[in-house]
Structure formats: structure tokens, C-alpha cells
Amino acid sequence: MRVISPRSITDKRHIVPFILITSLFFVWGFARAILDVLNKHFQDSLSISITESAFVQVVTYLGYFLMAIPAGLFINRFGYRSGVVFGLLLFAFGSFLFIPCVVINTLEAFLICLFIIACGLAFLETSANPYVTELGSEETSTSRLNLSQSFNGLGSSLAPLIMGAFLFGGNSEDVSFPYTIMGFIVILVAIIFMFCDLPEINRDSKGVTKEVEFEFSDDSGLSNIMSLLRSRKFMFGLFALFSYEVSEISINSYFVNFTTGMGWMNSDTASYILSFSLFIFMTGRFFGSWVMRTVPSEKVLYYCAIGSVVSIICVITTSVSEKGETESLSRYIPVVFLMLNYFCEAIMFPTIFALTLKGMGKLTKSASSVLMMTPLGGCVFLLMAYVADSTGSFVIPFIIPLIGYIVIVVYCKRILFFRQSK
Description:
With 422 residues, the protein is mostly helical. The protein has 17 helices and two strands. It has helices spanning 15-45, 50-53, 55-78, 80-96, 98-104, 107-133, 141-168, 176-195, 222-229, 232-261, 267-291, 297-320, 333-345, 348-357, 364-371, 381-391, 399-421; strands spanning 200-203, 209-212. The chain is globular and about 55 Å long.
């Protein structure tokens, strides 16, 4: 078995850029996790069904899908820092639009705001994810990205806690207030990035990174994308990442609906439990980043994928006998298995992302933009919501994320097979 010896997570000269870029992971983690509470809030405040409120996720991840390639082309031409600043400004613009939308108070108006924010997030993630993998040795790129993504988990864990208390705690239902605050914070972060020293990094054919002075490129990047689509390794990684997004986003979006629909808790309590689950998710990423400094990332990913498959099977089987239980402590058993799944799935996105980018060289920026189309998998929550509404069962929809985790197990088996055959 190949073992990676422990080493510095990044080069000393890249510490400041690493810290600055990692702060962005917290920003979009917070922004995306708000949706899981907003989904339930709109059901109550606008009197709509689970299927209708699922469009909160649909328009957000459709924004990722539509903007990922343009973001990649933009970054190829203007560089990582320009991509970050432009993404932050889009994010702020969408946040401030919530102010007039509260007056209009229709789902369609809110969806426009969320779509613009999603376009900004697509720029941020397309810029930050590959940039982190290049801030040091290619061998430690997976561990490094998991560490940065841990702060994404921190933002994700705080969002339901704060928004749940604000929207379900009886204090206010004005969603423009938290978004306005976020808008001002994001503008401040954009100003910092405008004036900070964020060197462009290129990786040569041997996987060695080097700083370069950025020059505007005339290369559209379209030829790079065509090359990627012909790569079987890249396409399998793309499909595995899409499957993960289907599972992770669907479960996050469904969590409050599931626990309240089963009669186990109210929306306020469910938001706190979701926040705690996302804290476990964050812990899993920190732990995974540490483990991957000595254990091959493919192996860690394989065992975690098996753990998620087992966890979701247990959620399904234990939920059947606990529906409507409001007194027995056994009603929390399915929730415990859901929390276990959060720990297991924590390292999946950054690990699959980094493994897919390995060896891409000059195709890295283009590869990242295509990979950032995968949050479109979040739109599958619409199917999960439809199954729940049409069958009247809150358990059957979990079959959808289960299939996604099974795909990741197959992906792991494939990369482990080729690793061992070398």
C-alpha cells in the first residue's frame, strides 16, 4: 500500500494566499446551507408544497450549471483573483435584491435573487477549489483541499443554527435582514481581495507548481474542455462528483422536512439538529484531512462511501418503525444514522474533486469549471420532494441519495484497481 509521509500542508510562501482563499469556503458554505432552512420557511410563509419549495434548490444549482463554464473561461482569461472578486460582487448584488423582494413577497421574486447569488458562488468555487490544490505539492493536494473545505463545513453548520433561530424562533420572518448583512460582509471581502497579493499558480507537466505573473490569455479554453470530455478518467470523476452532489444536497434539503414530517420535532428544533449534523460534517473534513496525510485518499474515500451506503440503508430501515413516535427515544435512531452519514460523506467532494484534477496540468482551470457544473445534482431534490408528496412517504425518497453513494463506491473500486495495477 502506498503511504504518503506527513508533510507541510502548503509551502511557506503560499500561507497567506491559502488563508485568504480558505476564508471563501466559509462564505459559500454559509450561503448554501441557508437554503436548507429557507426551503421549509417558504413552505410555511408562502403556503406552498415541498415540491414547490424545492425550486429554491433547483434555481440555485441551475445557476451553478449555467455559470460554471463561463466562470472557467473568465478565469482562464483574467486569472483566479478576478474570478473571486467578480463572484463576490455578484453574490452581494443578489443579497441586496432581497430587500425589494420582501415587499413583492412571491416565490418567483426570491428565486431570482437566489439565482444571481448562485452565479456568484459558481465563480467563487470555480476559482477557489483548483487554486487550493495548486498551492503546494500535488501529492498533498487532496489533504489540502479537505482542510479548506472544512471551513466550508463550519459555515454550513452555523447557517441553520442562525437562520433557524431567526426564522423559526418567532423573532422575525424578514429574510432580507440576514441577506443584507451578508451583502455588506461580502463587499468588504471583495475589497480585501482587490488589494491583496494573490499570485497566479501554474503546474508544469511534472506536477510542480510555480508562481507566474499573470498575463491576459487569448485562449478561450473551449479546446481544453473538448480535451477533457475525451478523457475517461475525467468523465468518471465528473459522474462520481455529480452523484455525490445529488446525495448530499438532497439530504440537506430534505432534513427538516423529513424530521418534522415524521412527527419527531418541530421546525425550530430540526434546524438546530441540522446545524449539529453539519458540525459533525465539518469535523469529518478536519479528521479526513489529517488522516490523508498518512493514508492514501482513494482508500479513505472508499471506506467513507461504504459507510454512507450503510448509514442510509439504516435510516430507511429504522424509520419505517418509528413514524409518528413522539415519546420514545428510539425515534432518534434514524437521525443518529443520518448524522453518521454526515461524518462519512464529509471528505467526498474535495477528495473526488482533487483526485479528478490530478495530472490535469494546464487543463486544471477548465477541468475545475466543468466539475463545478455538478451542483446541478441538487436539482434532483425536486424528484425527492415529488416522491414524498406523491407517495405520502417521508422514507422512500432516501432511495435516491442511496443510489448516489453506491455510484461513489463503484468509482472508488475503479481507481483503487488501477492504482494497484500500476
